[in-house]
Amino acid sequence: MMGTMGKMAALAAEPGEDAFRKLFRFYRQSRPGTADLGQVIDFSQASSTRDIGHKVFRSPLSVSSVSEQDACRAGLQPVNKWKAYGLEGYPGFIFIPNPFLPGYQRHWVKQCLKLYSRKPNVCNLDKHVVAEETRDLWGQSQELLRNKDVNKKRPRSLLEKLRWVTLGYHYNWDNKTYSADHYTPFPPDLAYLSEQVAAACGFQDFQAEAGILNYYRLDSTLGIHVDRSELDHTKPLLSFSFGQSAIFLLGGLKRDEVPTAMFMHSGDIMVMSGFSRLLNHAVPRVLPNFDGTSLPHCLEVPLPDALPAGSVAEPCSVEDWQVCANYLQRARVNMTVRQVLATGQDWKDKETETTSESSCHLDDKNNEAKRPRMNPNS
């Protein structure tokens, strides 16, 4: 049988196709459970760097920067129990396989679906659905999702049509900028989580100012792009994944450089700063759960009945989790958090410039590099 590299080499190039686009197309068409995924790095399987290849090395963390109590408040294990990895040739890139305490991922899934999707936050449905319906997408969708039968065809709920939500300083997809007058309060629980992870990675002064939440279906992709709209690229971009797994491609400054493929599983965190902030990246494929169950095992554990004092997590009822679990059977949620302004800078000093090479909108099917056009009736 032809190996992964042979299959990639045999894939006919499209006119004008670069190396990144070719690999993107290969993984978009890949088949789970076959040799197609043989070259994808799986950080969750690494007991040593030998298990995942010569490009991977252990990345040091600032254990003393986050107390065990503060980590627990965010739903995280003590930092000295985390494993963090870097990749040769990608300075500023850190991958942390699921550092969450058992059960706490459920809080963040529920927040993404129930709270962060509410007004006044901005979402892709705003231009396609009447304002009354987008005020509370959870309320409009929960009964349909709670009674969902995956084997029966039915109209999709509004939550299942949700593709992105912006938080804090709302990203303008048309001119690729942030502005002072397009702002709503950033969620304090997500700010706290982000600041603890940033501090553990050596960014003690990080301020969570903007968030983009992406809601993937199994046929969704995230097009090849670079995140450049924030002013200070030394500040990290934090990425949190929940639900079904995905393949993430991290490339170079130019798209003719072959990217590195890696899995993102539920609970995994990626941190990109400095040089890695300027690299092309994309998500060509969302994968159904590897072991054949509807959800990853890490999501089967409920939140503790008694949450620690000061925890930012809130109880998640059985009814609410049933909605979340049914949603996640064919979906993945990703939270990215950024600091928009440079330290000590305010909007009077400078408005952000239009510097992003392409918008990072989700698309379904084959339009991965373009902004999705939603059909409210589909």
From TrEMBL:
For this UniProt record, the keywords arranged alphabetically read as follows: Dioxygenase, DNA damage, DNA repair, Iron, Lyase, Metal-binding, Multifunctional enzyme, Nucleus, Oxidoreductase, RNA repair, Transcription, Transcription regulation, Translation regulation
Q: Where in the cell is it found?
A: Nucleus
Reaction catalysed?
5-methylcytidine(34) in mitochondrial tRNA(Met) + 2 2-oxoglutarate + 2 O2 = 5-formylcytidine(34) in mitochondrial tRNA(Met) + 2 succinate + 2 CO2 + H2O; an N(6)-methyl-2'-deoxyadenosine in DNA + 2-oxoglutarate + O2 = a 2'-deoxyadenosine in DNA + formaldehyde + succinate + CO2; N(1)-methyladenosine(58) in tRNA + 2-oxoglutarate + O2 = adenosine(58) in tRNA + formaldehyde + succinate + CO2; an N(1)-methyladenosine in tRNA + 2-oxoglutarate + O2 = an adenosine in tRNA + formaldehyde + succinate + CO2
The Gene Ontology biological process terms listed for this entry are:
developmental growth; DNA repair; in utero embryonic development; negative regulation of neuron apoptotic process; neuron migration; neuron projection development; oxidative RNA demethylation; placenta development
Signal peptide (from-to): none
Which GO CC terms are listed, alphabetically? endoplasmic reticulum; euchromatin; mitochondrion; nucleoplasm
Q: What is its EC number?
A: 1.14.11.33, 1.14.11.51, 4.2.99.18
Q: Which cofactor does it need?
A: Fe(2+)
Record region (Disordered): 345-378
Can you give the residue ranges of the Fe2OG dioxygenase domain?
207-341
State where composition is biased (Basic and acidic residues).
Answer: 360-371
Protein name, UniProt field: Nucleic acid dioxygenase ALKBH1
Annotated organism of origin: Vombatus ursinus (Common wombat)
